[in-house]
Amino acid sequence: MRILMISAEGPPLQRAGALVDVMDALPSALRARGHEVSVVLPFYREIKENRAFKKKKNTGMTVDVQVGDKVYTARYLEGRSASGVQLFLIRCDEFFDRAGIYGERGKPYEDNAARFIFFCKAVLELARRLTPQLQILHAHDWAAALLPVFVHAQGLPFKTVLTIHHVADQGSFWGVDFRLTNLPERFFTLRGIEFFGRLNFLKGGILYADRLTTVSEHYRREILTPAGGHGLDGVLRENAHRLSAILDGVDYTRWNPASDHVVPARYDTRRLRGKQICREALLKEMNLESAPIGPVFGMVTRVVQEKGFEILVPLLDRLLWDDVRLIILGEGDPAYETALAVAARKFSTRFAYQRNYDVKLAHLIEAGMDISLIPSRFEPAGLIAMYNLKYGALPVARVTGGIQEIIEDYDPATDSGYGFLCYEYSSEAFWDAIKRARQIFRDQRLWTKLIKRAMARNFSWDASARRYEALYGELIGVTEEAAA
Question: For residues 37, 148, 199 and 227, what is the CA-based torsion angle, rounded to 10 degrees?
Answer without folding.
Answer: -80
